[in-house]
Write the structure tokens for this entry.
Amino acid sequence: MTLQSDRAGQAEQGEPAGQGGQAGQAGQGGQGGQAGQAGQGGQGGQGGQGEEAGWAEQAGWAEQAGQGEQPEPAAPRTPAGGADRIRGLLREADPGAAWAVGGPDGPDAVVEADTAAAEAASGREGACPDVSGLAAVLAVWPVIGILVEAGELHLHTPLTAYGAGADLPAGTTAHHLLTHGSGMSPVLVGLAGRLCGSPLAGFAAERIWEPLGMTRTRFAADGTLRAPVADLARFLGHLLAPAGGPVSPAWRAESLRIRTGELVPARGLLWNPAPHGSWSHGEGPALWVSPRRQRWAALLPTTPSASLRTAFREAVFG
């Protein structure tokens, strides 16, 4: 599959100097963030990300807009005892959960979900856990990154320039949607497919998942995204790799920084700042990555729980 460009000579609309990450947020003062909310049924309010929604403001993250990642010595890898503590925590709190922790060199521990339970829930053999809540960062986010780096998409250009977003408030951009949406935005999915010249699912499989060895990650016929936690580990490990692969270090760095200026809650591009220098996505299945500490973690609980996510995160990064 090749990227298509039928917008020859179309220049990106510039952003005022000095506004940094707030450029794509113009006009939100009276709209309550609705520009980024349109077309994203079920995500209203987005006070989401649970316990992490207000943490960034309290920790002063908003003051770091546009500063990127701050240097910090890498933390040591989780020792065997640390993995054992995490295993003990989940054995008591959610024995059916799947999880993994590790760094750029690979996982320290990978515990898959109960296969029998997953098959029973889906009604088919060989089923992987439902990770639809992570589709935005597993499919949309890396594909958008490819489009941006290829010059096919400019984050601050109104979506109408690409034949998308006609039903959204005037001036809505991809940046609006990426900094306000925690899930799969139909507008972004359609935009990505239009610019890729093929459905998002096929493009993500060919350009993202297959190169990373995520051979069991797939969209089912009913639109459900399924993946084993081992595939999530491959994806997260790649995000900490210095170079090479489908997600570039430049796109990661652009995404894992505050892109909302002084607006709250502070957000990156589909990732949210969390304690201990980490960034998170997801309130059911959840992912964390910390370039500062060179650590990542994935949790697929049997029952979503803010308290469990907090305890797991603290056990990994605290």
Remarks:
- The chain has one domain: 48-317.
- The CA atoms of residues 54 and 265 lie 6 Å apart.
